[in-house]
Amino acid sequence: MNRALAEVSLFGLVLVGCLLTVALARRWRAEPSTDGGYARERRRRLSLADAKAAAVRWTTTTNHREIGLLYIAFGTVAAIWGGIDGMMIRTHLLTPEATLWTEGTYNELFTMHGLTMLIFFVTPVFFGIGNYFLPLLIGADDMAFPRLNAVGFWLLPPSLLLARFGIIAEVTGAILAVVVPADRLSVLLAFKEPAIGWTVYPPLSLAPNPQTNFLLLGLHLSGIATTIGALNFITTVVYERDESIGWANLDIFSWNILVTSAIIIFAFPLLGTALLMLLFDRNLGTTFFAVEGGGPILWQHLFWFWGHPEVYIIFLPATGLMSLILPKFVGRKLFGFKFIVYSTIAIGVLSFGVWAHHMFVTGVDPRVRASFMATSIAIAVPSAIKVFNWITTMWNGDVRLAAPTILCVGSIGLFIVGGVTGIFLAVIPIDVVYHGTYYVVGHFHLILMGIIPLMMFAASYYWYPLLTGRMYDRRLAIFQSSLLVVGSAVTFMTLMALGFLELPRRYATYPPSYSGLQVVATVGAFIIGISVLMWLYNMLWSYFQGTPVETADPWELKATEQFTPEWQWFEDRLERERGIPPSEPEEVRPSYVPAQGERPPSLYGRIVPVAKRVASDAGTGAAGGFVGTIALTVVLLVAVALGAFDLEAFATLATFVGLPANLALGYGLFLAGGMTVWPLLFLSLGEYLPGELTLVTGLWYATVIASGFALAFYTGQSGLELVTYVLFVIVAHWIYGLGLAGTIAVLGGRQRRPSTGDDG
Amino acid sequence: MSSDDESTGSGPEPPATDETGPLEPTAASESLVLTYAAPFFGVVLIAVGLPLAIVGGYVVVQDGIGLCGAPTISATPTDEYEGALATIETLPAEDVSAAERAALEEAIDSPLREATVDGEVTNRAALLEGAIVEYEGQDYYVQITSQNSCLEVAPLLFPIGAIAILVGIAGVLTPPIYRKMAGFEERVGRDRSD
């Protein structure tokens, strides 16, 4: 089957679907209502003059928000294009043999899928979000260099067309061939999408295909655009901040864009240089990467010196969005703000020191490999810091059901799996086994898909009211988000399973025994595809049909003092344009902020209160444990009298710690445990058990630990004797729980921590 | 989904928020099964139906419009291999079929060095392994790069997949359909009571 025609047809189908959605939404908005009401706005035909004015406006704008929207639109188009590539890859892999498309076509698909997604989708969308919101977040009027900003964006469309000229030429040639003789189309038919892998490794990339030259030029141009954008972001953050915004209160998203831009400044010029060297090799006879010259491994070093920082260039903005959005939907401020900033900077620096882990199987000196293994494992630490802080932010928070919440929580889960599997791959012996398998594909897709696009979707939902003045369909959004998380998990976990079974990647064919898992992965990919189309529909339809927002605080951010500057800007705009007054929440509670005195206390000053709290907790716990254990003992004695409990069990307990089997020693040990271990566990874990009252929590706690007691002190009872034993154990523990919790409550031990209290 | 209801313009648009903040995405009276579970299974059915319909449909049309069977070959001058082909078998020119020769000529002229063999492939086994073929005084390393194999699955997969997709679409559209039906019954009930 002609892959180019199939791909362009699918792309056209999505485009027509979008246009149809827009047309229907506009039409229904303009029609008078059936109940005799009036149309809300006059229907107006789009004239040529309007179209021309709009074209001039959008192509010449230097407004950061409009350029941001252009970036996002461009990135979305690229995502659809690359996404269709991805769906075609998965369709191809439905059958073990290369039957739907040829082997060459499969190679083209995975080459261009990777490049389109990494270069033309992710970075432009994040630059778009940055362009729109970063100046608003830092109180700047615009980006530092508005015209350069426009130039940076307008370099991208030609770079995408250059990179994907192969498919454009192929389809144009196929259409023209209907009316034009084939020999006159030989120039067009000579172009074919490169089938060399997104890493463009020589000597494969030196193979004769004129389109490879255009691809390299397109990549180079996009690199220039990205560098221009990064320079602009850095200058904007450094010089255009409002007076009230210092480094200490610069928002977390701007921090991430700043560090990302810094990485770009160091990484992309190197990619540009390497691309030019490869172009020279292909066209001017140089031998930078030829076997007889610098060698193909030189390309790998240069490529991955850009390539691994590139991973963080596309990852860090997603973490910035996570750190910004997650707290808004759990009602708590970001936990460990400073440490997240430090981890971001650490990732930025370390990202330049891990590139050779992509080359463990190339015969790099083992000593060099070992050092890269160490740095690759080390870079997991700052990423883990972020994850721990996100989880802690959610802990005890007021988690609300919304699409961004589902996407944030889902992302954390998928990222943990993707990240942990990456740590395994950083270990040389594991990498040697799994390097060329689907394990790697599963690992990096769990990050590339698991957190990056998910955070883009979360941002689109979070800021949709601000961007459009309307609310999207929230039910559809929740449904779409859930589908996306499920689809991603099914698809990429399955790829990991295929990798564990050591199925090699980048092969168009595979043994039939793997076909079951390949079909499951394809079904998962189609779920992702359907959910993306649902998102697209929701965004377009709601732009015309969504309910207009009547407040600048649709997420109740004021209630938790998280009404950030971009929403303040939106509030001013709503009041100015639609006369909607600022809203005030009925109740305001501070989100959790670590206690900060005017001067941080000394180490001694910090230890003393902790030590006092520990002593107090231990004292009340011991007292409660004593009361509870004595009460429990009384109940157990009744069981002894009934023959359901054997006191010898206490004697056996003493032997576990090396003491002789003695009843008194065993009971003493039991009492000591009841006064120390179990009360301390209760004090530590009690707040996570159900029950608003301490006594109720005590009952839950006792129920849980009763099962352990029942197993440990079982002495062979059976029948009714066993039933009695179990009942008495449960009742005895409830008595213990009540005694323990009641005493602690009376003595004023640690209370349940409020979710948003000041005491943390 | 809910927008469908609002789009009919049957009354003033409800605000996205009220004085207490944003409205919950799902009202307490709504069935979670119909709002989320039914469309979820609908999407799963569509995602399962698509592969079935694609392979079932493809197998029906592949022969009719010539989508398979003609292998692709590549032809590279042996000079570029610098002696690395010393152990490769040479295919005598007289053994090459007309279709193979035509494809060889086309591949030599093509900038991509590839062409499709439209006709009898008499040396399939040799070309799969790769062989040296002499053409107009120049030796070429010729190899089948793709067999363009034909798909072999039961055509019945197509209707099964299509039905799964249709049922799946019904599942996805369950919430708006249910709301329309509920609205209809409410109106009917109101009319009767009037």
Automatic annotation (TrEMBL), chain A:
Domain Cytochrome oxidase subunit I profile as annotated: residue spans: 52-555
Annotated membrane topology: Multi-pass membrane protein
A GO cellular-component term linked to this record: membrane
Record-linked Pfam families: COX1 (PF00115), DUF6789 (PF20587)
Keywords of the record: Electron transport, Heme, Iron, Membrane, Metal-binding, Respiratory chain, Transmembrane, Transmembrane helix, Transport
Residue intervals passing through the bilayer: 67-84, 118-140, 160-182, 214-235, 255-280, 312-330, 339-358, 370-389, 401-428, 440-464, 476-501, 513-537, 622-645, 665-686, 698-716, 722-747
Compartments reported by the entry: Membrane
SUPFAM superfamilies attached to this UniProt entry: Cytochrome c oxidase subunit I-like
GO molecular function terms attached to this record: cytochrome-c oxidase activity; heme binding
InterPro entries for this protein: Cyt_c_oxase-like_su1_dom (IPR023616), Cyt_c_oxase-like_su1_sf (IPR036927), Cyt_C_Oxase_1 (IPR000883), Cyt_c_Oxase_su1_BS (IPR023615), DUF6789 (IPR046739)
PROSITE patterns found in the cross-reference section: COX1, COX1_CUB, PROKAR_LIPOPROTEIN
Record Gene3D superfamilies: Cytochrome c oxidase-like, subunit I domain
Any GO BP annotation: aerobic respiration
Family: Belongs to the heme-copper respiratory oxidase family.
PANTHER family: CYTOCHROME C OXIDASE SUBUNIT 1
UniProt-recorded name of the protein: Cytochrome C oxidase subunit I
Automatic annotation (TrEMBL), chain B:
UniProt keyword annotation of Transmembrane present: yes
Stretches the record annotates as Disordered: 1-24
Keywords on record: Membrane, Transmembrane, Transmembrane helix
Transmembrane segments annotated in the record for this chain: 40-61, 156-178
Origin superkingdom: Archaea
DUF7979 domain mapped to chain residues: 71-142
InterPro entries: DUF7979
Keyword Transmembrane helix listed: yes
Ranges in a coiled coil: none
Name this polypeptide is given: DUF7979 domain-containing protein
Organism (species): Natrinema saccharevitans
